[in-house]
Structure formats: C-alpha cells, structure tokens
Amino acid sequence: MEAYKQSLVDNRTLCVFDNETLIFSDKGRWLNPLFALETFLDTYQGSKDHLYVHDTAAGKAAAVLMVRFGVKKAHINLISDLAVAYYQRAGVDVTWEKKVEKLACMTESLLETMEDSDKMYRLLRMRAHLVDGVSVEVTDACFSYGQKTLFENLSFSVPQGGQLLVKGSNGNGKTTLLKALMGKLDLTKGTVLIEGKHPSQLPGRTIGYIKQQQAHQQQFPVSAYEVVSMAVDTSLSPERQRWEIDTSLRRTGVFELRNQNFYTLSGGEQQKVSLARCLCQKARLLLLDEPTSFLDAESRRALLDMIRSLSVGEMPTMILVTHDREIGLDLGWSTLVLGEEHD
C-alpha cells in the first residue's frame, strides 16, 4: 500500500507526503491543518511535484485548497460528492473510504455553486480569519478649502481584506481622500477610522502608499533592492531582513531587476517594486493613487494582475483611486464615485 493511503495514527488528521516520505502532519480540525500546510510549503525546499495527502475529511473547501497547493494524489476517509467532482476536474487522483452527498457544514454550502477558484480561496481565508487587512470606516466626510468643496457627506466602509475602487474626474478629491486616510490631512468635517482608530494612532507600518508615477522623474542612484529595503523591519536579524526583501521582490516578479536603478525601470516595473516595498513593510492597508497612469497596455495589464494576486494572497485592505474608466470592469471591485463623471 502506498504510504499516503496508510491509516492515520497518533490523532493526526492530515498527513502529507513527498512521494513516499512524510513531510508534514497536523492534528487540527476543520481547514486549519491545510492552512498550516500552506505556510509549511512556503519554505519547503524539497520537490513539490509529488505531493500526496491523507485527510480525515474533505468537502469542496479542502479540495479547493489541496488543488491550489499542487496536491497530485489524495486519500480521504470521509469525502463529499462536491469534493470528488472538484478533485476529478482538476486531475487529482483521489480515493476514499466513505462518500456522502455533502458534508454538514456551512462552508460546504457556501461553496456549492461557486466556481472561481480565487473567490473561493478568498472566502476560505476570511472564514479562517487569515486576513492581513484592516477595517476602514469613513463617516460624513467633508473637505473644503476656501470656497471650494471637494466632497461632502461622504460615508463608506471597507472590511478587513476588502477592496474599494474610488473613481472620479480630476479635481474631485480622490488624492485628498487618500491623504485623509493616511492622517496627513484633517477633514473639514467627519471622521476616518482605521481598525477603530484615527490614522495618527496606528502603528507606523500599517499603511502603504503607492503614489502616481510621473511622466518625467528625476533620477537618483538607488536600486530596486534599496527601495524595497527601506521598508524592512530593522529589528529583524540581517538574514531575516534579506529574506523579507528577496521574498517581496520575488512575490511581485521583479527579483531579477533588484540591482537596476529604480528610476531607469519602466513605469510598470516601478509600480511592482513599489508593491514589493509595501509587502516588505507588511502594510495592512494599501492606498494606490492612479497606479496605471503613464503605463502602456501590457504594463497596465501586468500591474492589475499583480494587484488581483495580492487581493487573493496576502489580502491587505486595498483602496485604489483612479480616473481610468476601465479599471472597474477589469478588477470587479466595489466602486465609489466622487463628484460627477463626464463622458
């Protein structure tokens, strides 16, 4: 009998094998062992081409996670029809000891009619409280200078790990709103609360800001690596700091550009480095100010793909302001419009 099909012992609920070698086990319940496996795989140096799993129970949720982690074979003590169908569609070799129509849990019901793997993964992380983001609550916000009012009676909320697109023509206060969220500007009226606190009361690394790229920028001799390193936690050991920087650069796909001058990179590459800086910072709220400005179509598409990936993986709360009318369709986020948009 193959090793991964042998009986679970010592109260283990999940065992994971690299071919015939046991590399991970857990005694937890629900999806917690699988999320622990995800953390383990992030640093596992062995091959991930032959991941075989034995789990006590698997509904569609467990199947979604295992497929996402690259599991090739699975043996399940108790499995649902929904899980079997999902495994088989993904090409996973699955066997079981007992099969039922559905597992008796809310998560199984929530996923029953869902098909988008990223949306299912986000839902599961949120139900497991594995969200990096913070809550944002803006109430009756108004900002004026002189006789001009940029916005008034503005109220909205974004949950932990949520996303919001703020649209509007130039001059309607989009960047002003971001400055209020960062605590760099006081509203004329109303309140901004992040995780229930005024922005000035937050720990210094909570908010990451990615500013609008300029068409012409003054160049300085600073590498992409140095830009990201400015955000690293200096209380960490030198080895851990290097790991955090390298991981952030790899996560956003710009590791190979680490030694290049930041200001000689393309606009899209600069924005990816800026995202890497926010990841290295462990920012829980990302504020993006016109991130696609001055980008060509290919760079714009690559940047939006990266933003989508962050919304599924690290899941910080993200607020993006733009006058780009197509971004709403591209990202599918909830949208807030400031002022009136004109064709």
TrEMBL record:
The keyword Cell membrane does not apply. It comes from the Bacteria. The keyword ATP-binding applies. Signal peptide: none annotated. Residues 136-342 form the ABC transporter domain. Gene3D superfamilies: Hypothetical protein TM1506, P-loop containing nucleotide triphosphate hydrolases. Pfam families: ABC_tran, TM1506. This is ATPase component of Mn/Zn ABC-type transporter. It comes from Sphaerochaeta pleomorpha (strain ATCC BAA-1885 / DSM 22778 / Grapes).
